[in-house]
């Protein structure tokens, strides 16, 4: 591991060691003064769209309006007791801790502190310059403190959970005034199966900037640890396939096995036929590689799998079922679920179609009862655009970028990935209608039927804005619209 990650260099060009730490270089530059002025206005309740990097401003909005973090905070709160991470994450934390310890030794002469957290932002260990660590202790930048955005505002560790890749936060870019004498950079390490954060590693420096090489080092460090996560995901999948072969030999009905992220690893011939898949689909023989697993176009499946995983973690012998719209134009089918357990970990779910066994799944949200969030954040011309959900007619995915069709024109969503945008807007009247489209059902004014019976939603009569509805989603959309 250490051989694949080069030594960490955090001192900016022209600076070196303790003699250059302790000045006012983080707040004295023109850029820093401009950011500090913007922060003062924003913390006082004003809305701003200029003078601050978009990713930092988006974080400020979360901290102020969603998490309500006190901008005057100067000490991070302690982390709550207990944990809910998977047992095999302990191996990841150990590997990341070893990397952090080596990096801490690299930065001792430059006044640096290296910290490692779990997936909730709780610091597990810190290393580096003893003087800087004592300074960090004053802000509770130390083990068993909480550095998620929800607890401590914009910072390298917490904000890395919200964005892909490394994130730097320098001086007055921190949401909490008490941390604005620090420069920091962090990156999250994510589960390759679910995409959720497992841990993070962060580099901090007191009253001095970080080198431009730090983000590259963070990428390499994260990649070296995620190799182990990927290897474990392959091992999990092999356990699921082995269990599936035993299970499928005992039943003739449609059966598939999914991973923790609701992607299909294996399916028998009856399930492949039911789902109308090609016989040469990789799941026919078992897809151990995460990139080759199939994501079903079954709208509620991810929520149901998350629910089932939570139940199974408490009782490995648990079983439950849900009714899912599996085939377009047909009634929902019952799908029974039982956990796949390997080495005391729940690594997947068996899904048997047509069976109702165990605890029933209940829906928790409804379009009619949804309340609107105060803002949705978009980006246009390096500015953040604040949108009420009622202004958004639909969202369209272009790979990982999401475009919002709004009353103010076409605007890029600050949140990447249609699944993430859907999670944000689904409680507020938006529904997935196609693998690339999410629509505000309250803005639908007309419906059209295509030549082959396909459904098209019209959300703006002025320009005849047309949003396609896939056959799989059409029955649910008709039900929600009352047609």
UniProtKB/TrEMBL annotation:
Residue ranges of every copy of the HTH LytTR-type domain listed in the record: 377-483
InterPro entries registered for this protein in UniProt: GAF-like_dom_sf, LytR-like, LytTR_DNA-bd_dom
Alphabetical UniProt keywords: DNA-binding
A Pfam family this chain is assigned to: LytTR
Gene Ontology terms, MF aspect: DNA binding; phosphorelay response regulator activity
Superkingdom of origin organism: Bacteria
Descriptive protein name: DNA-binding protein
Protein species of origin: Saccharopolyspora elongata
């Amino acid at each position: 591991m250490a051989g694949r990650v080069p030594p960490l260099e955090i001192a900016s060009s022209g600076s070196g060691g303790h003699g250059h730490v302790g000045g006012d270089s983080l707040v004295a530059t023109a850029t820093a003064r401009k950011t500090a002025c913007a922060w003062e206005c924003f913390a006082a309740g004003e809305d701003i769209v200029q003078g601050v990097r978009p990713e930092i401003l988006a974080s400020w909005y979360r901290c102020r309006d969603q998490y309500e973090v006190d901008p005057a905070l100067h000490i991070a709160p302690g982390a709550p007791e207990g944990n809910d991470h998977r047992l095999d994450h302990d191996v990841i934390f150990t590997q990341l801790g070893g990397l952090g310890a080596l990096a801490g030794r690299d930065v001792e002469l430059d006044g640096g502190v290296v910290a490692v957290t779990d997936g909730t932002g709780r610091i597990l260990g810190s290393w580096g310059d003893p003087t800087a660590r004592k300074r960090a202790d004053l802000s509770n930048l130390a083990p068993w403190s909480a550095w998620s955005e929800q607890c401590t505002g914009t910072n390298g560790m917490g904000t890395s959970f919200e964005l892909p890749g490394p994130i730097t936060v320098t001086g007055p870019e921190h949401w909490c005034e008490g941390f604005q004498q620090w420069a920091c950079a962090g990156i999250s390490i994510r589960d390759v199966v679910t995409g959720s954060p497992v841990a993070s590693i962060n580099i901090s420096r007191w009253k001095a900037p970080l080198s431009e090489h730090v983000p590259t080092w963070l990428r390499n460090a994260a990649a070296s640890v995620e190799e182990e996560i990927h290897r474990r995901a392959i091992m999990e999948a092999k356990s699921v396939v082995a269990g599936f072969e035993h299970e499928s030999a005992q039943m003739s009905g449609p059966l598939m096995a999914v991973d923790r992220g609701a992607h299909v690893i294996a399916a028998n011939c009856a399930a492949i036929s039911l789902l109308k898949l090609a016989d040469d689909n990789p799941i026919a023989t078992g897809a151990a590689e995460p990139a080759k697993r199939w994501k079903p176009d079954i709208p509620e499946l991810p929520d149901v799998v998350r629910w089932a995983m939570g139940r199974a973690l408490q009782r490995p012998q648990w079983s439950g079922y849900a009714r899912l719209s599996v085939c377009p134009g047909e009634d929902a089918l019952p799908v029974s679920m039982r956990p796949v357990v390997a080495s005391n970990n729940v690594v997947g779910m068996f899904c048997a179609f047509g069976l109702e066994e165990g605890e029933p799944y209940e829906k928790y949200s409804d379009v009619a009862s949804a309340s609107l969030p105060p803002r949705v954040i978009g980006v246009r011309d390096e500015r953040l655009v604040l949108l009420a959900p009622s202004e958004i007619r639909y969202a369209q995915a272009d790979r990982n970028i999401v475009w919002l069709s709004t009353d103010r024109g076409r605007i890029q969503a600050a949140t990447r990935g249609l699944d993430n945008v859907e999670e944000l807007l689904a409680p507020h009247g938006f529904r997935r209608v196609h693998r690339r489209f999410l629509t505000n059902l309250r803005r639908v004014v007309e419906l059209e039927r295509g030549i082959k019976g396909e459904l098209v939603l019209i959300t703006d009569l002025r320009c005849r804005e047309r949003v396609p509805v896939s056959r799989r989603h059409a029955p649910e959309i008709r039900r929600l619209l009352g047609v």
